[in-house]
Amino acid sequence: MSAEWFRDAVIYEIYPQSYADSNGDGIGDLRGVIDRLDYIASLGIDAIWFNPCFASPFFDAGYDVADYLRIAPRYGTNDDLVELVEKAGARGIRIFLDLVVGHTSIEHPWFQAELQAAGPSPEGDRYVWSEVEPAGWGIDLPGIPGWVKSPGPRPGWYLKNFYEEQPALNFGWVRTNPEQPWRDAIDAPGPMRNRAALQEILDFWLSRGVAGFRVDMAFSLVKDEVLSDGHAASAAIWRDLREWLDTAYPEAVLIPEGEEPRLGERLAFDADFALVISAPHASLFDDHFAGTLPWHLPREPFFAAEGQGSTDTFLATWNWLRSVDPDRPVIMATADHDFNRLRCGGRTPEQLGAALTFLFTWGSIPSLYYGDEIGMRYLPDMPNVEGAICNPSYNRAGCRTPMQWDDSVNAGFSTAAADQLYLPIDPDPLRPTVAGQDGIPGSTLTLVRDLLALRRATPALQGHAPTRVVHEGYPFAYVRGDSHLVAINPRRESAAVDLAEFAEATQVWGAGATIDAGRLTLDGFGYAILRR
Q1: How far apart are the C-alpha atoms of 299 and 285, rounded to whole Å?
Q2: pLDDT, tens only, 12-68
Q3: Is the Cα dihedral 200, 201, 207, 213 positive or negative?
Q4: What DSSP letter does each residue of 461-479 carry, written as one string?
């Protein structure tokens, strides 16, 4: 189903308001990205994934959409996006947009029309309304459906999907009940209007050259108290859309937030996404400096100097995914906009080599979060900008701070006054910058460029080649494509493993590695790639 290029791709996630400000208003924009395309290409990137760029009041950083067919004015215009698509394409880079379809902003014209109405729309409501507050679903927490009292002429309550300012779009309910009239059937007029609109949105941007979409909360469309049933019904909507895409845009790529439900049906999305906030990824990298994720037990991370972690949780999920579908791509991010950064807490630049070697050579599609290529830090105690603190246990703003380009004012991000910036710049005078690492041997930026160049030149290290684990502890060692061995030691103490099958191997990448008669020894934070 997926385009052949995608399986071996490297993605670069850009949080647009923090990347590059071209007009001096303190907020990043598309023109700023256009100006930096040569830099992005120099990393070895195949696709850029943008967080939401559509018109929005930005109560939740653009995940509250007010117009799906218009670029937010603070980022530029629709023509700017088309220019970006064309100029990125000339450099071999495709563009993915973040698509939020489970809910809109309260400022979306669809919601405002229903809010001002006296009752249900004769064409079918686009949102979920009840004249009285229903029992259940009354949970006032972000990310969990709950009922909100109507703030306008329309009486009653509406269902929110995340924040109260994000009313849930009506895609129907798995189970209907005559005594609960807000439960529209999946094929009722309101849900069918929204399904038609979703196809129109996809068509609008794909026709302008966008390569695909990362879909936020992709399986939250259809509601049901049994979450798995709602997820399954939502997946069916995406399967129908995939059938249309097969004809209209056969190369279009769809990426879900998380894992697509396995239902014995054709899968609609082109990959699964190993989310930073989910247990498998967190078990590797979450050092709890950015806060505590309340939905799974905290563990000592595997990538930590103390060496008290384990790969068990990660490998259990990976092996399950491979057993269900051995060829299914999985996206693994260095970090993302929703939690921490790769360099978080006590993790030092010296430790990034092992982490990046793993993330760029494991049998997955790497997603490099902007700034991780220079080792930008997660910054604690950042202000709550645009809904960054959605859970009291952690603050997402710390991973959303402006890109650090050079040592000029505001680290080259913007010419605006410091108090006008989207978020503060890292105040550390030794903060990493692109200019400070460009062309410098041993820098994180040089390591990323060289490692991605090696990946591009070596099919065995890309996404299509199989992955076979040969040692699960310290060092973590695995064979790619039966020709290359990758070994990483994320702890401070040295670690060794006997690998007779690679006794005569040649080292093609690494630091702090020695091999003697089939015994590979890695210094603390060492890493190596060997070729038979």
Answers
A1: 10
A2: 999 999 999 999 999 999 999 999 999 999 999 999 999 999 999 999 999 999 999
A3: negative
A4: GSSSS-EEEEE-SSSEEEE
